[in-house]
Amino acid sequence: MAALTEAQAEFANGRWLIWARPDQMPPPGDWLTWLMLGGRGAGKTRAGAEWVRGLALGLPPFASLPVARIALVGETFADVREVMIEGVSGLLRVHATGEQPDWQPTRRRLVWPNGAVAQAFSAEDPEGLRGPQFGAAWSDELAKWRHAEATWDMLQFGLRLGERPRQMVTTTPRPIPLLRRLIAAADTTITRATTRANRFNLASGFIERVVGRYAGTRLGRQELEGELIEDRADGLWQRHEIEAARVGLHPPLGRIVVAVDPPASKRSGICGIVAAGLGPDGIGYVIADATVTEVRPDQWAAAAIRLYRRFDADALVAEVNQGGDMVEAVLREVDATVPVTKVRATRGKWLRAEPVAALYAQGRVRHVGALAALEDELCDFGPDGLSAGRSPDRLDALVWAIAALMLGEGGEPRVRGL
């Protein structure tokens, strides 16, 4: 495709309402705060700059009349200037010739030809927001602000002009208290954007190189997918321990088991299916999570046996508390040659999981690649035996697999021919 001429590029750049994604447009409803959570390079800055432009010029659907005074708040003054104002997607770039505001760096403000003014503020100086008043505000990368609470409070006191003062927040999420409160607030409307959604505006190869490396990890889910990732303070597993022990490949494994936590219902439900192996270094390697949802018994049994065959496992360990002999019978209907080891839980989930979590804390268990859904269950598992308010099926299967490999609880190795 031939490169656009300067005139063509300016024409396309000015047609934001045509090119914008739905998550980059102001949401409907009577909201006070529009919170745009997004990954790196997801188009958050462009969305914020276009929103401010629309307000200052009184352009539908952003505003019916110009908003006279607007606050621009960033982590530092340098961030406001270099990203929000002068950046490649900043305010000076999104205006067509003839409508651009005058950037007055010494006064830290933009002035539009119609008289609208946007003032720049730094989250390093919350007191700088004491006194000025606004009809709108754009806050960028709030989750990085050094004095987030104090700066946000001062900004709220200044939002007092016009009939309906509003604010937009663009940020890659981090689990800070202020962001949690904003997400939970009734007057907040949230849109979400991923890095991949903006791939056509990113450098060639960036998606494959960066997303391929970090996809599914905590850092990738936060910085690329725009997810708010949190751990339970009272949990057995901590995400930083899992991340620190993650590996891309595993060594030759001397013993492999597939563990199954069947659903409580005979008709359908979630069946936890996890494979793990023991390395020559005595380290346990979690190599796959093949958990299935809302399937019949014959379907989850087939999924478990496929994983068993895929890794040429030594044993298939199945919890039989819920189904008793039916669990083994269902597995044998699919493949009667698979050695099934039945295990029965005699203790609560928390007590059963503690020895396995201790192995993680000692650095004796590694995850091979990213196992996002399993890791979410581990890090949200609490003393009540629940994860995210429900039974942790993936976690249960993991516990049985690691226990069979490293704690001598079920599963005997078979002789492998060479």
CATH topology of the largest domain: Rossmann fold
Note the total helix count: 15
Oligomer: single chain
Major sheet strand order: 3-4-5-2-6-7-1-8
Reading the helices and strands in chain order gives: HHEHEHHEEEEHEHEHHHEEEEHEHEHEHH
Cα-based radius of gyration, to the nearest Å: 27 Å
Q: What structural category do the secondary elements indicate? A: alpha/beta
CATH class of the largest domain: Alpha Beta
Arithmetic mean pLDDT: 88
Tally the structural domains: 2
The portion of residues forming beta strands comes to: 15-25%
Shape: elongated
The low-confidence parts are 410-418
Biggest beta sheet attributes: 8 strands, mixed
Examine the secondary-structure arrangement and name the CATH architecture of the largest domain: 3-Layer(aba) Sandwich
State the end-to-end CA separation: 55 Å
Q: What share of the residues lie within helices?
A: 25-40%
Please identify which CATH superfamily of the largest domain we are dealing with.
Answer: P-loop containing nucleotide triphosphate hydrolases
List how many beta strands DSSP finds.
15
Detailed description of the structure:
- The protein is elongated and about 80 Å long.
- The longest helix has 14 residues, at 44-57.
- The chain has helices spanning 6-13, 16-19, 44-57, 77-85, 91-94, 148-158, 177-184, 206-214, 218-223, 239-244, 297-310, 325-334, 349-361, 372-379, 393-406, and strands at 33-38, 69-74, 102-104, 109-111, 117-122, 136-140, 166-171, 188-193, 255-261, 270-278, 284-289, 292-293, 315-319, 340-343, 365-367.
- The strands form 2 sheets. It has an 8-stranded mixed beta sheet with strand order 3-4-5-2-6-7-1-8, sandwiched between helices. Strands 9, 10, 11, 12, 13, 14 and 15 form a 7-stranded mixed beta sheet that branches.
- Helix 11 (297-310) packs across helix 12 (325-334) and helix 13 (349-361) packs across helix 15.
- Mean pLDDT is 88; it is low at 410-418.
- Strand 3 (102-104) and strand 4 form a beta hairpin.
- The chain folds into 2 domains: 6-221, P-loop containing nucleotide triphosphate hydrolases (Rossmann fold), CATH 3.40.50; 239-406, Nucleotidyltransferase, domain 5 (2-Layer Sandwich), CATH 3.30.420.240.
- It is of the alpha/beta class and 418 residues long.
